[in-house]
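I hope you will forgive my troubling you with a question about protein structure. I should value your view on which stretches of the chain appear to form regular backbone elements. Here, with my thanks, is the record as I have it:
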Amino acid sequence: MWKYIDSQLIVVPKKVYEGLLVILCVGTIGLLTLKRRKVGRYIAGLFLLEYVFFVLGLTVFYRHWWWIKIYFSPFWSCVSIVRDGNMTILYECILNVILFMPIGLLWGMLSEKWLRRRQWLGVTLIGVGLSVIIEFLQYYLERGCVETDDVIHNTLGCLLGFMIWKGVYKMVMLTKQK
């Protein structure tokens, strides 16, 4: 699986990684110099912004494809995995989920007290919205496959990342109360 992940990450130029790292470091230092109580949220917001740019670069802008495929049938990838045993599609599905988990995690950090009962709705909207933007850009720029399954898997990844954050947050709060 690592070979597949490495083959997907190789398309992003090294200068992009370095540029994002410099922006992240400078932004973090700038935020740490602020004397505010909510610096952690600003840093989480900065990480979220950086990560969204990274995901857009990885999924759209640094792909060198010149053709496009469209799959509007939901769960076609699951059918292909079960029926044909297609492990490449299974890896892609898993990677789509993993790719969006940090977005849900960081959104949870940002929205700690924002609509406590409806945080999952915000995370779902972020996952669907960003995923639809990516699929639209892939279609418009002819950079790969436009799939309904990608939207589903990305949103699932967002929700899983949020649930991980929520679980860790509850454990930390329980530990502080003892």
Observations:
- Residues 2-170 form one domain.
- The radius of gyration is 18 Å.
- Residues 79 and 85 are 9 Å apart (CA to CA).
- The mean pLDDT is 79.
